[in-house]
Amino acid sequence: MRLFGTAGIRGRLWEKVTPELAMDIGKAMGTYIEGEDIVVARDGRTSSVMLKNALIAGLLSTGKEVLDADLIPTPALAWATREHGDGGVMITASHNPPTDNGIKVFNGDGTEFYVEQEGKLEELVFSGNFRKARWDEIKTVKPLDVIDDYIGAVLDFVNHETGLKVLYDGANGAGSVLAPYLLREMGAKVISVNAHVDGHFPGRKPEPRYENIAYLGELVRELGVDIAIAQDGDADRIAVFDERGNYLHEDTVIALFAKLYTEEHGGGTVVVSIDTGSRIDYVVEEAGGRVVRIPLGQPHDGIKRYGAIFAAEPWKLVHPRFGNWIDSFVTMGLLLKLIDEEGKPLSEIVRENVPEFYLTKRNVPCPDEFKGAVMERAYMALEEKLGSETREVLTISGFRFNLKDGSWVLVRPSGTEPKIRVVVEAPSEKRRDELFELAYGAVKKAVEDVMKKG
User: Fold this and answer.
1) pLDDT tens figures, 118-171
2) Which residue is catalytic, options 48, 94, 278, 397?
3) 397: annotated active-site residue
4) How many CB atoms lie within 10 A of CB 446?
5) What are the C-alpha distances in Å from 75 to residues 101, 106, 140, 427?
6) How far out from the chain centre does Cα 231 lie?
């Protein structure tokens, strides 16, 4: 598609994401959605107020009534849409750099638009075939205050009080207006960093990958907290450190919840993205369930297609009994509950429940226009090198070689940034390093060769 990537529309301000585009998305949403009320919200980026107002103008032009929730995290927007609206729109670029912005669109049940719906919205945008309201059909913008009600809904779902000490890093993002208050309502003792909203992201880069938040490990040890939690710019992503200051790998967090839900249901299907690892399969199969892998950015599609009891991709967890959207606030509440109910430090819970695997991720810069040719070249190179070792090849969201020894190699184009992502996992560090050197080298060479040809 020309506009939508793996998670809505994202890109550089003025280059891809403009007020004109926001207005057109508003017109398209107002034309596409059958109901009357559209919930609109934004993150804290410097351009988000501008884009939100352009979006609202587009919605109003089609005769919709706008419920303006203003500055809230994306999970709260999804919840508010289910509770109050017939559709929802979030102005955010999530974890992208501050130069970027974007737009996410939601159905009335709080789910992000499905792929086929995004296609129909794009058709409307490029055709310009928008509904135009008569002068006496144009409605109003109503403020919608949802933070307290959303916190109450999460508290009711988690149903737990705690005395744990929590270090929270809000990335200067939208989660800062909600997370510390939720945690304190649970009874936690909260220490916050980067918890004032600032669209320049002065504290750290908004993506909560380890290299951006490694300093939290030392803070955990200095402050003696039980857990550290970090979010991204719109607070759908969550990263975790245990009480020893060790970063919990994204797959480990997913595996903990996958095991919990599978045991609760006595089996069932867990849906995870193509870039997740074998520790998840191990715990789910041990608990009598099965794992299905799907393309990135489609956990809601997976829940609908497979009736999944749980869905996730790295940093993003969906709890279907609460809602079919990514929700880091439910995740953090349930993590505190898990620690208290187990009566053990988080490091011990992980050690006893999740096996160790060795995984490496790294990005290769690649302009968007060259991604297709690079992926083709890299695939051919790796197929030649790994052919005899390959058990199966998955071709969703790029390609993934599952090898006979349990290792796997994934190469996929980013849907939001000019990068090719390389992920390798293996049963040993030595095997991981060998495979990663091979895969990363193949992709890097493919980029160089394609760019030379122009």
Assistant:
1) 999 999 999 999 999 999 999 999 999 999 999 999 999 999 999 999 999 999
2) 94
3) no
4) 25
5) 17, 11, 25, 35
6) 10
